[in-house]
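Hey,

The postdoc asked me to send both predictions to you directly instead of through the lab channel. I've kept everything plain text so nothing gets mangled by the mail client. Protein one:
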Amino acid sequence: MSFIVAETKIKNLNLQEFPKTLPTKTKMMGEMWAQTGSVIASVMFVAAIFQQYLPRQLRYHVERYTQKLVSFVYPYIQISFDEFTNDFRKRSEIYSAIQSYLSAKSSTRAKRLKAHDVKDSKSVVLGMDDNEEVTDEFQGINLSWASRKRTKNQTSFSFYPQADEKNHYTLTFHRRHRDIITGSYLDYVIKEGKAISVSNRQRRLYINNPTQNWYSYRGTKWSHVVFEHPASLETLAMDPKKKEEIVNDLIMFRKGKEYYAKIGKPWKRGYLLYGPPGTGKSTMVAAMSNLMDYDVYDLELTTVKDNTELRKLLIDTPSKSILVIEDIDCSLDLTGQRKKKKEKDEEDKEENKDPVRKMREDQENTQSKVTLSGLLNFIDGIWSACGGERLIVFTTNYVEKLDPALIRRGRMDKHIELSYCCFEAFKVLARNYLDLDSHELFETIARLLSETNMTPADVAENLMPKSVIPDAESCLKNLIEALEAAKEKARMMAEDEAKSEAEEAAKLKRKNRRRKTSLLKSKRNVMEHKKEIRESIQEKMRMMGEMWAKLGSMVASVMFMSAVFRDFLPVQLRNHVELYIHKLANFFDPYVQITFDEHTNQFRKQSEVYSAIQSYLSIKFSARVRRLKAHDVKNSKSLVLSMDDNEEITDEFQGMTFSWASVKRMANQTSFSIYPQSNEKKCYKLTFHRRYRDIMTGSYLDHVIKEGKAISASNRQRKLYINNPAEDWNSYRGTKWSHIVFEHPATFESLAMDPKKKEEIINDLIKFSKGKEYYAKIGKAWKRGYLLYGPPGTGKSTMIAAISNLMNYDVYDLELTQVKDNTELRKLLIDTPSKSIIVIEDIDCSLDLTGQRKKKKDEEDKEEKDSVRKKREDQENKPSKVTLSGLLNVIDGIWSACGGERLIVFTTNYVDKLDPALIRRGRMDKHIELSYCCFEAFKVLARNYLGLETHELFERIGRLLGETDMTPADVAENLMPKSDVEDAESCLKNLIEALEAAKEEAKIKAEEEAQQKAEKDENLNAEKEA
């Protein structure tokens, strides 16, 4: 009781004293906040003085030694991974992989999450929110991942809007674990992240965008949607044996990475699907995609401007994809009708054509300049190895219209005919649609299917129940009625066709009489059409003038505002102040600095010296730097780590110490630009004592640049280049050549060729690579020309890849149709370095370089041509003015010595079409014929594909190869196993069957040609007698 009373008295006493102590505590708290504010104000004042008034050299040293002090105390290392790789906001693949990896970690550990509505993901993706941190563990090591956001002060105006926020991930770990983290851990994270991305996304269906949209803001070459087609090979209406053969072929391809590398062939396979409409070609493509889990790239050739853009689209398709060209016979003029010299009667017929119709046809033909040669090189040339693990599928309703070179083995490896519905296909449809395996009406349906043609699509439509209560028997009866109606319709159509042929002949005579009358009317229509065009052009010019006036007004406003907000300090005074401050600082500071900027001009072209220094520092000192930055370098074999911004390291050379720093400057200026501009300017700064100036500017810098270039060369992969159109050369970051990594597996060991001939070529190439002094001694440019000629499928493109891999040279694929004139051709040559191979594939198809030089015209050629036809011919000749003389001077004239150590390779299927001056010795020094497969070449293929050195069937195959012509590509296709159970002997038997079939086909063709010749001679004799 006494305890309770005492406690009550104490409480009352505290309550009485509280009002007295409250003002005192409030006063103390106020004084404390006042002191804190004073300290903060002092710090801000000192920081402002330090930033604005302290000399730059002194400020640099203070910051430098402050960082060294922090680095000495702080034992942790940081690596930054930026979200975007350039000013065009291309997302880094490494950043995406890390985001996927951390999404799995952060969803269970992070307190603050951010939901991402990813379009192609199967579910909502959860990731770390900004400034959130999670921990990870690897081999007993604890690591920390943080999501950061930087805000930049964007002061430039651009037609391409730029985000003010830059996201990046930061990885922090103890410095004792540097080797494990930069080695195995980062590779593990990227691999796991990519696997999570693939498992979480859905398949996609892509379509190529028009070229004018590629370089717009965030423009891409392909647009896509989620691909959710339900087709599978199980539900496909097809002969089960044929279906099983296709499934085995696809599975063998998917497992064949090492096998394709062993045989020296790109990991790609072509499928030709042909047959009447409605037979399931598109459904087959969808079923292949679902079986292989590949994305589908639907290539619309009519929107592709030329061969160069076709290659760029191929570059932009990744591995694990199906590239589809549907109805290829309708896409472009690729039906094998190569350009020939016109006969006189054909010219007369062309002149009598309707001019308006001819103008419309010319406009249609100028939409796309993709050639047969360009498409052939696209699917089976040196570009076909880009990406790997790719299926190329052509579909057509009229296979006989396609050029044999387009669908030969090696390009379209497997030909799949999807024809009218057979009984086996009907049974699949009956099981799918009606759940029937047998029925009494099946026999009637089988008989009707053999008597008439009906596509699987029509059969399926008749089998589909049309009411809520399904009745299988009524559906079968509907099909029987449809088959009988189709049979009757086919009979009536045959009768009608006979009548229509007779009527057509009569109509043709009447049409010829009316043509002369319509010609006069069409000429008047042309004049009216030209008048409309002139009026339209005038209206567009007026609108363009108004647009430029508004643009000029806007630019003037921007310039006026920039002038208003400038500093008011006179320029002369400001310059004098800065000059004397620098002099005063230099008097006390004994150190010299050299700055190496990242970009050399306003087009943001990276300096070669900067790149060499970056490679030198990244390899030499990545083990010492505390803060690193990861670079997603496209052509590098591994992840590249370098110093982060404002990081510093020291280097030693001949006992002297040099300091390197990575610096980022912010350019605070208001600018107007069509292209995206960054306010960040990066550079490396080299600092050294002035007593070392001579050694540094002499041997040390040469040492750094030489070492850096050697490191870059050892770390990079070979490249395959294609020339860009001339109008893109001077655009933002424009270059004359675009490139990708060249990963073709071909080698001389795997090349199907006579071993003696192969050895001769290898010796010639090795001798050339060692011949610098020899070529200088004989006074000849250090270059060598190779002419590769032979039928399609004999390995010309594979030979180029083998030469590149042997010599370790980059390949420059020169597309002559993209070169405007001889001057541009010389500029392209200047821009190709040494240790390169310049390739012109199918040179007989590239331009008019076939030796038909200009001759004196006949009198009848001097007659005035129709104006519309003349205009068309001028437009056709306008794209390229490269002449035979210009090409000769480039490969063997005074320009041929530019660069040195260069191979020039021409390929052609028709060597007899080329001008002798183009392929003479000294230009094309070595002529290599790649002909049909001989027995020695077959033995190389048997060793590559089947691992066989000899077999009892070899003798028979040798005899057949001596009796018939078959390309190495066809032989290789027959030797390739199509399933896991197919052995070497069955592959050899397949080849024997194919050789015997080819022999018989050649015999029948020869008999038909002999018969046609005899009939032609007989008709000529009859005409002479008449």
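Protein two:
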Amino acid sequence: MGVIWTEEQQKVISLRDRNILVSAAAGSGKTAVLVERILSKICDPKKPVDIDRLLIMTFTRAAAGEMKERISAAIDQKLYDNPDNEHLQRQTSLIHNAQITTIDGFCAYIIRNYFHMIDLDPGYRTAEEGELKLLREDVMKEVLEEAYAQKNEKFLNLVECYANGKTDDEIRDMIYKLYDASMSHPFPEEWIEECLRVYQVDNVEDLRGTKWMTLLWNAALESISEIEELLERAAHICREIDGPYFYETALESDSLLLKEAKERAAKRDYNGMASLLAAHKYARLSAKKDLNVDEEKKKQVKDLRDTEKYLWKELEEHYFSQSEEHILEALKYCRKPLEGLARITLQFKTAFAAKKREKNVLDFSDMEHFALEILMKKEGEDIIPSTAAKELSARYEEVMVDEYQDSNLVQEMITNLVSGWADGRKNIFMVGDVKQSIYRFRLARPELFMEKYHSYSLEDAKEQRVDLYKNFRSRREVLSSVNYIFRQIMGEDLGGITYDDENALYTGASFPEKEHVVGEKTNDPGNTTEVLLIEKDGEELSEEESGNQTVQEQEALAIAQRIRKMVGNEEVLDKETGRYRKVEYGDIVILLRSATGWAEPFSQVLTSKGIPVYSASRTGYFSAQEVVTLLNYLRVCDNPLQDIPLTGVLHSPIVGCTVQELAILKSRCPDGMLYESLCAYCELEQAELTEEEKCLQEKLCAFQAQLEEMRNLSAYTPVHELILHILSETGYADYVKAVPGGVQRGANIHMLVEKAMDYEKTSYRGLFNFVRYIEKLQKYEVDFGEVNLADAGSGAVQIMTIHKSKGLEFPVVFAAGMGKQFNFQDINSRFLIHPDMGFGVDVILPEKRLILSAVHKQIIRRQLQRESLGEELRVLYVALTRAKEKLIITGCIGKLPDVCNALSVYMDHEEPLLPMAVRGKARTYWSYILPALARHPAMQELFHEYGITERPAVVCEKENAHFTVHKVTVAELVQGEILGQTDTQIQEKFLKEWDSNRIYDEEVHKLLKKRFSYQYPYAYLRDLPVKVSVSELKKRSWHGENDREEALFSEPDIVPLVPDFVSGGNEEYKGAARGTAYHRLMECLDYTAVDSESQIHKQITALTEAKKMAYEEAQCIRIQDIMTFLHSEIGQRMKKAFEADQLYREQPFVLAQSMKNIEKDWNGEETVLVQGIIDAYFIEDEEIVLVDYKTDRVRKGEEQHLIDLYHTQLEDYAQALERMLQKKVKETCIYSFTLGKMIPV
């Protein structure tokens, strides 16, 4: 049965000849629809398109690989249904060259094909993150040293103002930050110049026209609106029967200030607003006492007024603390240092680019900019597509971009240039969901998506938008709870899009009813979204404490207890069988905003509770014990006079010294470094030592000898080979695989070997540089993360970051860490950058030793904060939409009574979308979720517990969302622990009293006996090769006898690199290369130009110049040997065959042979594949003559020896030819160049 597409999905599949933006909600099947659109274009009966004429760009390599597999499988299926379709047959070969790739992959493709347009060496490679960091640091040092030497006034001004303390680290960070931000723009230099224009405003009129001043007034109006709401609420309480009516006078005074402020804001009177706020004196609240007035209401009004006063103060301090003239002066003070910053950043950009060119490496931003340089030229404000862009544009029928919401400006321009943009064709197809744009830290611009979202038509048009809103992933319960929360917290002002009916999630998946319980429907309480508030006894969860492990452990403990209740009791739908089964550990995922400081304690707590857990962490590689030990060994290898690494190695399983033994070593030989003590200890007389000390000396002497060997090896051995040798000689590789978690540990060590191999490809060499390289990686906090093993998480609870979970789905999701503070570190730094508003800094006056807050920086900070909060909203949306059947939201929370009182303020708010005053001041995910839940009936029980009895306003009623809100106290957690420990103790007692001699269950005993006594019946096949070469067969038939022929050119010998002055010349090399040289010449010999030695010499020279033969190999050939062959009878026959086009040379073959024919002792019926290369054969009188060249050193009269040695090989060749050509081999012969004659076989 085929897939039934919805009307919207069908539109996406079938619309043609237009730009299409698909706004695809989470779980809406966008990948399936995209694949179907590609197939429909390939199989279009009117206008079929070849797959290589579509450009398909995705966000990750994994997504590109998966899409290619899906398309390939679908084409194969269609070809199976229609095997004679030539167009489909062609697609199966074209798919391998189709551009289904990432944006980086496509840029690399452009560079590979058009490198000549930018004078780039095509042999470049993509640099590793670690290598780039080292390179950046080296370049930065050079650039700063040069800048200090030049003593440029603007640069020195920059250093004087913004360097922190005795170092210039702050300046480095500013340069790096500005460089990285600029590289996300198509024209970095122009963008930096544009940013500087903010500081080049010279008069008040220009200042008032700037974009950031407009944003300043928007911020002021927002604060004024919030103040107005607070005053109305306070006045309303004062007018209630038992309200504090005597506070109204003060509130009226505040209302006058509000009125004045609104008037000045409407006129955009900046100086007037500043003077108004500076001069205002607040009226005191009346001290009148009235017993009829409710004290609680008095407190409420006081609190509201305090909030109002705080908002006025904040408005004045941040935005209206100075006059317009002072703002201009402040901008002028910042101009010179920032011009210095721009100049040095551009110098760094140039120097870094030159260094990368010198080493012939590129990073990802280089690829994008080089691709852009190839595709276009900029003349003034006009962008002129290049010939390359026109070629690519003509080639691609359609350009498809997946995850469009994560594009940046450079990628957008590249996409436009290779599409039909230049000649007016509309052929860009974009898919994305702005609600899932979570890569702002990678400088993604969701604004590009939103611009098209608003401008594209929903009707039939050349620029059309299609919305996919049906979710085919999750249960209705999950979707309704996500909708309920996000309708209240996501708006265009925060989050980038209004979460209305158009953007809500609608159920598309159907889940069968659970038949085992009578009358239970799909919306049973078992699938209700749960909210676990883990109370942190009266303590506020502060930013400093977010790294405090007790918070994480407490939450992990609550989750562990919930998982234990769930597993084996609750049910989920099995994807394979389509039936319900009990929840297993592998169905559950715990999603975290950040793995750092969270994943590890969670893993430890869950493991301690007997819950299998897998954490796919991107950190922790360099802290893994096996990696630490191996790196310590390498450090000691490089320089043993390092006490800390040496102590680590001695105490590790490699040497196995205990702490006590190390103390003995140092007490017996206290002088010098630890290595000197070790050497001295090894030289002590045995007679002086106790038995324990003798045992230690034996250990240390063995280690010293081994270390000396490794140090000698390290001088000339590649690092990866050295590591493998260390692992082999010390046995450490076997040890780590044997301990718990051995597979993971082994993979980590293998990764270090791979990193060493990658390092060898870089411009650095040797052990010293490798050790420095690793230390720099650790210094610059480059962490590869422990190796992710395939299927490592199956059968275990997975812990992963929300970012890593994007695009995945899980039956049960714990959205954890909701109480973790958002990371506003970047927003609070001294140097801020915004892509549209440029950069913001504080005003620093070194001569007056003053730091002043700049209004421009405050506006940028506010904008960045809003964008960060919007990003956090989208991250939360991604987390909650991963759940298929069950969503559980968890987090620690402090001072719950105070939180509930603060939440009660919004209970009567009737608009679904919460005010910006709530959303714009969020500090944790609870700051979003709890205000949204405040108006839900599920929170009422908790409110009642704290004496809050107001009736909430009814919002989002049509969602019919169900929540269960549960407060988890420490007492509950302890109680759960006690019960768990009791169960464990009962199990432990049972196991301790287990009688291993007693048979408890006869059937189980028999089954175990049968299983453990099983022997594999085909163990003898372990020695059977699947494929063997003819040379190996010859070795099998001549056991132990040396192979006297030099290797064929396809299997060159490994020649030891020994200098000529040691070996006495290159005779050995000549011996090894001779066979290769003769075979290569005979393969390429042109028999029409062999009349003289000079002609042969000319052919050899041509082969050398064409790099088909090495110069050293050419020197091995004796031309006289070739002339002798050509004048021989077989040579003349081969020449004749060549002229008749009947001579075939270097013919590869694969032949199935019975193993009995290869080994006489073999008893089975197995067959192996024999592969080889036939030197030459020719057709003569419709029969085959087989010739094999040999360069073995043999004497006259030893011809039979050659026949004995090679007859088996030649019989296989003959058999292969007869099977392939269906002709008889009439003659088989060996031509010996040493003897200069043909030997019939």
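Summary for protein two, as requested: The longest strand covers residues 1167-1180.

Thanks,
C.
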